[in-house]
Write a structure and sequence with these properties.
21 strands; elongated; GTP diphosphokinase activity; Hypothetical protein af1432; GTP pyrophosphokinase; TGS_RelA/SpoT; 713 residues; Beta Polymerase, domain 2; 15% strand; alpha+beta
């Protein structure tokens, strides 16, 4: 039931609820000390009731506007009233956005703040409260200091009015826009208001005559219609004058009538009749029924000229369309750059529409549960030190952020702080984080930023900017840089002497020089080369297998455990003792060969192992074709060498990377070259397979200061 007078107190509001608020919560609220309702509360609740907001939303507004009331609510009570808690959290989060708006420089980036607001509130009903409170503040701001009026109006114009427009809540949108415009441009506002007032009597008489003529004509045609004058809003008049570049006297919709009918067929029938009554202006006709606006606004708009040359705008829509236009539906929150609505926002739309329409029979708990699902985002909204909002895809790094701020900031980026804490360049901030980029006076991007395995860049836009920088370098410099990258990668995977012909064929590169340049520019990743070599070696071994594969070997009992400390299975040999060669330490996924030793069974070597190749070259009849089967153990011993500039916390950073990969360190030794400031760290690790080892080496290689991380043997 709409409020006829504002509540004098919290108890007054509770008395009017008729069981709409849970009894337990009412008891807690009644026990709170008597608090006089703030001046904004009555107008806010009246607006919320006009919007058909439920009691939970109204209660959230009361708690939000009444100083100290939230602190008096017991935590367990708020926990049970989860919907209320979500609303209050959203209102508190919105205060952060208002603060950022006040801190920013200029009037730009309002869309970013709107997106941030929508990202940090988990219940979109919060927006209804924010709009209602802001309208109450604007209405009460007439006697406020000029600076406060301007700040309030700017916030309204940047955040609240656009949100009301996107929700389609026209009755709030028009008043928010007009009041904000009144404070931002008082002279223009008064001039247009005066122009409207000067001919008000003649305009009102003409509108009354037009309304009666339309009623009579539609009634004769058997169309039931409600016909009313449509109030003109000063901000929309000014916007249309500015957009069209025309004076006030040439606007078609200063005189306006709205016609409400029962169904869509009557809309078009009424349109035909009014076009017979007066001369239509073809350029001013819009069919928003066939093509609704983005916020689901539906109506027919037409402009007409009477025999005396006076213009009249007529809007025709159904009663249901009018209800939607006045109360709002959220059919459009945000569109991607291409103009297509995202699926996640379509889910938001469906739930928000149900909330605003207040459908009977909806289960509120189920509605809110679905609402949380609908709010899953695929974007993050981050803040610059000045409070500007940067919109990035989910999982973007601080380096992506740097390139989003400016290309040169990205190129010169050497570090970052998130909320005042120094983080690595591959750190992924969350919505609402404040990111500060640390830059050098001069600098250039690093080629390893382009390596996907390093995780520095998640956005294609940032990667394109890095590639573009390297494309500008001369070919000789790129050629040498590519050679260095390739040598480093082949050394890392112990394939330094591999034949690269299969790589050129598989990756469709004409020459080795072209491969080097492609590596330097980031068009081909070093890991693609090593993976191609690995796959080619495996294919050769499989092709060399006999037509009928030999059953998988089973380790036989022996007097001492295998030298690698683990059990394994190798297909291609049967009933023979097998052991992994210590010289190259093969792991599952490596291309391997078998060598039949004298008295020690079959020794398994990596295909690239120099020792294994020498043995096979000397006695080729002892080579056995083998390949990996199902391992009985998932951990294999490997030796790794890391060369790096000696610095504080180097070992800590390296071991953290290894620990995060869930790899065990069996032993570690280091040697420092103080004259050159370098350190060599030898690690004995337990890995599950080639893939895990290769990924780890890439991450170790990306640790600041590391020159080289490679496998030994």
């Amino acid at each position: 039931m709409p409020l006829t007078t504002p509540p004098a107190s919290l108890a007054d509001w509770l008395d009017r609820q008729d069981g709409a608020v849970p009894a337990e919560l009412i008891a807690v609220l009644r026990a709170a000390p008597a608090v006089t309702a703030p001046a904004l509360l009555g107008p806010t609740l009246e607006t919320l009731q006009r919007l058909r907001a439920d009691s939970e939303v109204q209660l959230a507004a009361i708690v939000h506007l009444t100083p100290g009331l939230r602190e008096r609510l017991p935590a367990d009570t708020l926990k049970k009233a989860s919907g209320l808690a979500l609303l209050l959290d959203g209102l508190r989060a919105a205060e952060q956005v208002w603060s950022l708006h006040a801190q920013r420089e200029g009037r730009g980036n309002a869309e970013g703040l709107r997106r941030l607001l929508l990202a940090i509130i988990r219940d979109l009903r919060v927006v209804l409260i924010l709009l209602s409170v802001q309208l109450a503040r604007l209405r009460a701001a007439g006697k406020s200091p000029r600076e406060e009026q301007i700040a309030l109006a700017e916030l309204t114009a940047d955040i609240h009015a656009p949100l009301a427009n996107r929700l389609g809540i026209w009755q709030l949108k028009w008043e928010l826009e007009d009041l904000a415009f009144r404070y931002l441009q008082p002279e223009t506002y008064q001039r247009i208001a005066k122009l409207l007032d000067e001919k008000r009597t003649g305009r009102e008489r003409f509108i009354e005559e037009a309304k009666q003529k339309i009623r009579d004509t539609l009634a004769e045609a058997g169309i039931h219609a409600d016909v009313a004058g449509r109030p003109k809003h000063i901000f929309s008049i000014w916007k249309k004058m500015t957009r069209k570049g025309v004076p006030f006297s040439e606007l078609y919709d200063i005189r306006a009538v709205r016609v409400l009918v029962d169904d869509v067929a009557d809309c078009y029938a009424a349109l035909g009749l009014v076009h017979q009554m007066w001369t239509p202006i073809a350029s001013e006709f819009d069919d928003y029924i066939a093509q609704p606006k983005g916020n689901d606004y539906r109506s027919l708009h037409t402009a007409l000229v009477d025999p005396e040359g006076r213009t009249l705008e007529v809007q025709i829509r159904t009663h249901q369309m009018h209800e939607h236009a006045e109360l709002g539906v959220a059919a459009h929150w945000r569109y991607k750059e291409g103009g297509k609505a995202e699926a996640s926002f379509e889910r938001k739309v469906a739930w928000m529409r149900q909330l605003l329409e207040g459908r009977e029979g909806d289960d509120e708990n189920a509605l809110l549960a679905g609402f949380n699902t609908a709010l899953i985002e695929d974007r993050v909204y981050l803040l610059t030190p000045r409070g500007e909002v940067i919109d990035l895809p989910q999982n973007a790094t601080v380096l992506d952020f740097a390139y989003a701020v400016h290309t040169e900031v990205g190129h010169r980026c050497r570090g970052a702080k998130v909320n005042g804490r120094i983080v690595p360049l591959d750190f992924r901030p969350a919505t609402g984080d404040r990111v500060e980029i640390i830059t050098s006076k001069t600098g250039e991007p690093r080629r390893d930023w382009l390596l996907a395995a390093n995780g520095f860049l998640a956005t294609g836009r940032a990667r394109d900017k890095v590639r573009a920088w390297f494309h500008k370098l001369d070919r000789a410099r790129n050629l040498q840089a590519g050679k260095d990258l390739l040598e480093k990668e082949l050394r890392r995977v112990a394939m330094l002497n591999a034949d690269l012909a299969p790589v050129l064929e598989k990756l469709r590169v004409d020459s080795l020089d072209d491969l080097h340049v492609a590596l330097a520019l980031g068009d081909i990743g070093p890991s693609q080369v090593s993976r191609t070599l690995h796959d080619h070696a495996q294919a050769l071994l499989l092709a060399a297998q006999p037509a009928k594969p030999v059953a998988a070997a089973k380790p036989v009992a022996r007097s001492r455990p295998p030298t690698d400390g683990s059990r394994f299975t190798v297909e291609g040999v049967g009933n023979l003792l097998v052991q992994l060669a210590r010289c190259c330490q093969p792991v599952p996924g490596d291309a391997i060969i078998g060598y039949l030793t004298r008295g020690r069974g079959v020794s398994i070597h990596r295909l690239s192992c120099a020792s294994g190749q020498r043995l096979v070259a000397t006695q080729p009849e002892r080579q056995l074709p083998v390949n990996w089967g199902q391992a009985a153990s998932s951990r294999y011993e490997v030796n790794v060498l890391v060369r790096a500039y000696d610095r504080k916390w180097l070992l800590k950073d390296l071991t953290n990377v290894i620990a995060q990969a869930e790899i065990n360190i069996l032993s570690m030794s280091s040697r420092a070259d103080e004259a050159r400031g370098l350190a060599e760290i030898k690690l004995v690790l337990k890995v599950s397979d080639y893939e895990q080892l290769s990924e780890l080496l890439g991450k170790l290689d990306a640790v600041p200061g590391v020159q080289d991380a490679r496998r030994l043997g």
